[in-house]
Write a structure and sequence with these properties.
The structure holds two protein chains of two kinds.
Chain A (H helix, E strand, L loop, with lengths): L9 H14 L4 E7 H9 L2 H4 L4 E8 L1 H4 L2 H11 L4 E5 L1 H4 L8 H6 L4 E3 L4 H9 L4 E6 L6 H13 L5 E5 L1 E2 L1 H10 L7 E5 H7 L4 H8 L3 E4 L3 H16 L5 E3 L11 H10 E8 L3 E10 L8 H4 L15 H5 L31 H8 L3
Parallel strand pairs in A: 1-2, 1-8, 3-4, 3-5, 5-6, 8-9, 9-10
Antiparallel strand pairs in A: 7-12, 11-12
Chain B lengths: L4 E11 L4 E8 L2 E6 L11 E5 L2 E6 L1 H13 L8 H4 L1
Antiparallel strand pairs in B: 1-2, 1-4, 2-3, 4-5
Bound molecules: iron/sulfur cluster.
């Protein structure tokens, strides 16, 4: 376990928090979009140090957590058939579907492989020409270009036994869905730095303008988070609903244009069901017609069943900032990272898992 | 999984008739291959952020070292070798 005192920037972080204290005049609710940010806030004990007038709402920003169990069921189903090799990122393996997780399928003999990069899957496909290699592709705009590259590479190499089970999600439509929800009252956002590394932050300008919320692009280290919060509160106190970049060391306004072009080349937007939130129009990416032969949904005629999520889980209320993980009666009892009942307990970046792992109870 | 990890470009190789560049990237001595397809202008000795095997942005050396140090301190580097983590 890490607390602030073990962290090199401790003094600077404390100074930043003092600056926030003298700046803040009104109660504000700020949502951090990225699960990596949630993770840092909890891990470094920053939540206890911030003024009580500031409420942080832990957003939906963990692509693993929001992947609906119905898509996981599809991945498990494929993995259990002997002609398939199912690959994904390690985080995705523990997530429970309705019957089991990929890890359980693996322990029962399915060929499930954990990859560091989707590009490794092409190599596996070439080495196993008689098998169908499927990469279960999750992620935000940060990860979608890399997953898209694997499709381009398969195409380039004439690899036919490779396809993507795409469960990508997009950040701006989720922010709008939260802003449109009358129960969720978010005054300002910390936008996810690494998503903006790819996409830049032009997409946030209409959101800031239309919903009257400041949006500050922020990194995920403690000092970056405090700086991002300071700027968001400054904008809120000055009624300035603009987009600002507090992570200019890494993020540019335009983002990575080559990556954006690749997303357009390989994918197209689609409606997507988010675990804990529900259906959000145009909030996902699926493989477009040009690359259809690499779309596992198309290739194996897969349908996403409407998801039956666990009704005991109050994930939706947590994502909307109405409740905290501690308010859930199952937290740490029936629901733990090893046996998660709901999405936010699933991966390290989920709010419930972060509280479970790091918060002092 | 959402992390981007800073590394140093040690060598660059052209593939597919020179259309796509790949690099050997050092993460404090651990060498991994990364695609430079999304960041074609990278040179040897540049510092880059690598996300799931793909370079996504160039950063300066100081930033690279700071972030790497941070990720090491917080125990977040294990995703570089995912099969060791499970
Ligand atoms: S503790 Fe578990 S059941 Fe409760 S809200 Fe979090 S994920 Fe859902």
């Amino acid at each position: 376990m890490k607390y602030l005192q073990e962290f090199a920037d401790e003094t600077l972080v404390k100074e930043g928090i003092e600056k926030i204290r003298s700046l803040i005049k009104h109660p504000w609710k700020i949502m951090e979009v990225c699960g990596g940010q949630t993770h840092s806030f909890v891990k470094y004990g920053l939540l206890d140090l911030l003024p009580k007038t500031l409420q942080l709402i832990h957003g939906p920003g963990c692509p693993v957590c929001v992947t609906p169990s119905s898509i996981i069921d599809l991945a498990v189903e494929l993995a259990q058939q002997p002609q398939f090799i199912l690959c994904s990122f390690g985080d995705m393996l523990r997530v429970p579907g309705t019957t089991m997780s990929l890890l359980e399928a693996k322990s029962r003999g399915a060929d499930v492989r954990i990859l560091y990069s989707p590009l490794e899957a092409i190599k596996i496909a070439k080495e196993n020409p008689l098998k169908e290699v499927v990469f279960f592709a999750v992620g935000f705009e940060t990860t979608a270009p890399a997953n898209g590259l694997s499709v381009k590479q398969a195409h380039r190499e004439g690899v036919k036994n490779y396809s993507l089970l795409s469960a990508h999600v997009l950040v701006p439509p989720a922010m709008e869905a939260i802003l449109n929800d009358s129960e969720a009252k978010v005054d300002g956002f910390l936008a996810a730095g690494h998503v903006c590394t790819i996409m830049g932050y032009d997409d946030y300008e209409p959101i800031a303008y239309n919903y009257h919320v400041p949006i500050v692009v922020s990194g995920f280290e403690p000092l970056d988070l405090i700086h991002g919060l300071y700027r968001t509160i400054y904008l809120l106190e000055n009624k300035s609903n603009i987009v600002e970049n507090a992570y200019a060391r890494v993020v540019t306004k335009a983002g990575n244009r080559t990556a954006q072009a690749l997303l357009l080349e390989v994918f197209e937007p689609c409606d997507r069901y988010w675990r804990g939130i529900g259906l959000i129009p145009n909030s996902g990416l699926k493989i477009n017609k040009t690359y259809q032969e690499y779309d596992a949904f198309h290739k194996f005629s897969l349908q996403i069943e409407s998801a039956k999520e666990n009704t005991e889980c109050i994930a939706g209320d947590i994502l909307k900032g109405i409740k905290k993980p501690f308010d859930c009666k199952h937290f740490g009892k029936k629901c733990t990272p090893l046996f998660p009942l709901g999405a936010p307990m699933v991966s390290n970046e989920g709010a419930c898992a972060a509280y479970y792992n790091y918060a002092k109870i | 999984m959402c992390l981007a990890i800073p590394g140093k470009v040690m060598s660059i190789e052209n593939r597919y008739d020179g259309k796509v560049k790949f690099a050997k990237v050092s993460f404090d001595g651990l060498i991994k291959e990364a695609s430079l397809e999304l960041l074609p202008d990278v040179q040897i000795n540049d510092y880059v952020l690598i996300h799931v095997g793909v370079a996504i942005s160039k950063i300066d050396e100081q930033e690279a070292e700071k972030v790497f140090q941070y990720l090491r301190e917080s125990g977040d580097l294990e995703e570089l070798e995912p099969n060791h983590a499970l």
